[in-house]
Amino acid sequence: MMKRSKHNIYPALRIAGLFLVAALSASCSTTAPGPRPAANAAYVSMAGPVSLPTPLRQDIYHTVAPGETLWRISRMYEVDIKTIKKTNRIKDVRDLDIGQRLYIPSAAPRIDIVTLYPGRKWKYIIIHHSATDHGNSEKFNRAHLNRGWKGVGYHFVIDNGTCGKDDGQIESTPRWIKQETGAHCKADGMNEKSIGICLVGNFSIDRVSPAQMRSVVYLVKQLKEHYNIPSSRILGHGQVPGARTECPGKKFPWKTFNSYLRR
Fold first, then answer.
1. What are the pLDDT digits (tens) for 30-51?
2. How many CA atoms lie within 13 Å of 60's alpha carbon, on the beta-carbon side?
3. Which listed CATH number (3.40.50.620, 2.60.40.1250, 3.40.80.10, 3.30.70.3090) goes with 119-261?
């Protein structure tokens, strides 16, 4: 079990901004145009610990994940949409494909954007593990499409530093951006009423990284508060009545997770 003194498991997270924006939409094969201003959705962008010095801007490559738009990518790296379009010779913002590599000039350190939408649909939060050593939203999207599903079944994926994503990076999937029913837990009708969060890794064997723990605690706190979800309705997949699985793994640190969730 991880301890705070050893891993500094939950340092202060800087809330980089809270703004009114439009609800985004995206398909499983291509992304949609950027949003229009609206007053019924908000996003919270999160960055690393405030104690760390701010790294300099640098040129990077970004691989487009399911549900990402130029609007979202521009805010992840604080680079203007017009600059990204011009640099990558993009004529139409709709001409953006999953897996496409974009050159982002003078990118700021990446921040994760968690969009909070209005509504009373979400009553539970279900925690999963991928039961794989590596993965990301794009990989899961492809695997779930092969199963005949409508793309990645989770609403959020928290990466473990593999497949080109940072350890602890939060990816919002098209199901969240479109506020669609999940495909992550059939038991007790959870797909229709719960937010599915998948941490990349096999926590029946390995342990949740400190970066992943910081991110899942942060994300769950934001969702819990915004949708008024009580702690009793934050469950692991295997804790759902009728579910026959040990997901999110025998080594998932529930005691640590719940301790930091209460703070």
1. 333 333 333 455 545 444 444 4
2. 19
3. 3.40.80.10
